[in-house]
Amino acid sequence: MFEVVRAVFPDDLNDVLDLYHEYVNSTSAENRPNRGVTMMRWAALLLLALPAVVLAKTEPEFHLCLHYVEDSAVGEQTDLGWPVYVKLSDVGARSLEAFTEANTGRMVRILVGSREFSRATVRAPVSGGDLHRTFSAQEHATDWQRTFAEELPEAPCGAPHTGIAVSESLAEQ
Hints:
Distance between the termini: 42 Å
Strand order of the largest sheet: 1-4-5
Mean pLDDT: 79
Strand content: 15-25%
Largest sheet: 3 strands, mixed
Order of helices and strands: HHHEEEHEEEHH
Low-confidence stretches: 1-10, 167-173
CATH architecture of the largest domain: 2-Layer Sandwich
Number of strands: 6
């Protein structure tokens, strides 16, 4: 619970903890007159924090892995920068399509290990298994291409927390 509060209100966490300690201390016999005020403060704080905590949803994540990526390349520089093109395997393309279909209209993240390759709002399901991202520096583009070519993790694949992920039987095909 405090991790969620810390993520939403990092500067106010000490105030929350201070109010909690004040509430705990006010329950002793010598401090009973302050108990009502402290309870009201604590209740008000919780009521104010609840909508922010509820709205602080995490963005769905899709993980690219060794079984999902077939090929990658750095393209020629454009006005926007250096593009990196990623071609997914059939299994990866089907999994990404199911993931984007389930998350149309939402902000999603595409990860390789713990690194974020892309973050965007899904406007329509992505079919065909082609991804790309443009980088402002050639070094960043070649670093990502090297990651796709040599450093892809075996797992996680897909969206493991939603059931949209590669099964071991599919990975062996």
